[in-house]
Design a protein that fits this description.
The chain is α/β, with parallel strands linked by helices. Helix content is 41%, strand content 17%. It contains six helices and six strands; from the N terminus they run βαβαβααβαββα. Strands 1, 2, 3, 4, 5 and 6 form a six-stranded parallel sheet that branches. Residues 1-141 form the NADPH-dependent FMN reductase-like domain.
Length: 181
């Protein structure tokens, strides 16, 4: 199994990216092949449907998503929506890259809860014909409960992240095998 992870923050030491690095370690420990795109270090040009060519860094992102059996998309919440860098990256993708693939949505907000950004991210995934994992990760006041490795210091949040990742892996495995029993 191959999972593509896209960290949608361009902020240095972003808590949302930390959570994704933690998820990456959990998936790697299961022997899952991974690609990790950190939009804080991989700078994609602004998407334009009129562009004549796809830039190399964008081609790598598209290839990783295209080859993946599932996606983990993470974003901070900015003004009630997903980050501009993640939206820009997703604009480069088309239905052929995402259709039928399970997607785990991860949102982290500096306020009470990252529900608005999560709703926007889920709408984009549905428009790309991805299959949303039944559970998701949405954390409010997140920068205060995660250590530098993206591990929650709140046992309830840590357990929820673990359960969401397990559900996602189970869904990805079933979709990959064509089995829903």
């Amino acid at each position: 199994m191959h999972i593509a992870i896209i960290a949608g923050s361009n902020r240095r030491n972003a808590a949302s990216t930390g959570i994704l690095r933690h998820i990456k370690r959990k998936l790697s420990a299961k022997g899952i092949r991974l690609s990790f795109t950190d939009l804080g270090t991989v700078r994609l040009p602004l998407f334009s449907p009129d562009a004549d060519a796809v830039p190399p860094e964008t081609a790598r992102l598209i290839a990783s998503v295209d080859q993946a059996d599932g996606l983990v998309l993470g974003t901070p919440e900015y003004h009630g929506s997903i980050s501009g860098s993640l939206k820009n990256a997703l604009d480069y993708l088309d239905n052929v890259h995402v259709a039928g693939k399970p997607v785990l949505a991860v949102s982290l907000a500096g306020e009470r809860l990252g529900v608005s950004s999560l709703n926007h991210l889920q709408a984009i995934v549905r428009n790309l014909h991805g299959i949303l994992s039944p559970d998701w990760i949405s954390v409010g006041d997140g920068q205060h409960v995660f250590d530098r490795d993206g591990i929650s210091q709140d046992p309830a949040i840590a357990e929820h992240i673990d359960q969401a990742v397990e559900q996602f892996v189970g869904l990805a495995g079933k979709l990959r095998a064509g089995s829903f029993a």
